[in-house]
Write a structure and sequence with these properties.
By secondary structure, the chain is of the alpha/beta class. It has one domain: 3-Layer(aba) Sandwich (Alpha/beta knot), CATH 3.40.1280.10. Helix 1 links the parallel strand 1 and strand 2. The longest helix has 20 residues. The two termini are 26 Å apart.
């Protein structure tokens, strides 16, 4: 089963963000083996990237994808034999350049700026939506 990691700089303190993340992680277990790894705000995120993972860095200057396009990408990667996908979310200062340089894809969720804690919820929701699209469930509609 595909492993999906979300590496995050900074820890969730707000219970409403933590509750939302737990809900999406629970839902994702039907499709993949999800995990969220929290690092200190100044932690070395690049050093924690799993070996051999397809790396997607979340940054405002990245490429924009629709939900169906993200679903197609994740499905393509799985069909190509990728066993791990790793999303990177920086802290309040964004992702370090070193981490961005290691990414296979830089992805932007919007031209708007979001708090990194909310971005974590949004990324988990979009990963869940992508798997739901591929599975043909009604969630995306």
């Amino acid at each position: 089963m595909l492993r999906v990691s979300v590496l995050c700089q900074g820890r969730l303190k707000e219970p409403y963000y933590a509750d939302a993340c737990r809900e999406y992680l629970k839902r994702l277990t039907a499709f993949c083996r999800p995990e969220v790894i929290e690092l200190a705000e100044d932690g070395d995120i690049a050093a924690r990237i799993p070996k051999g993972a397809y790396v997607i860095a979340l940054c405002i200057e990245g490429k924009k994808l629709s939900s169906p396009a993200l679903a197609a990408l994740l499905e393509k990667l799985a069909n190509q034999g990728k066993s791990q996908i790793c999303f990177l979310i920086g802290g309040s200062e964004g992702l370090p350049e070193r981490a961005k340089a290691l990414a296979d894809l830089s992805l932007s969720m919007s031209d708007m700026t979001f708090p990194h804690h909310l971005a974590r919820v949004m990324v988990l929701e979009q990963i869940y939506r992508a798997f739901s699209i591929t599975a043909g469930t009604k969630y995306h509609k």
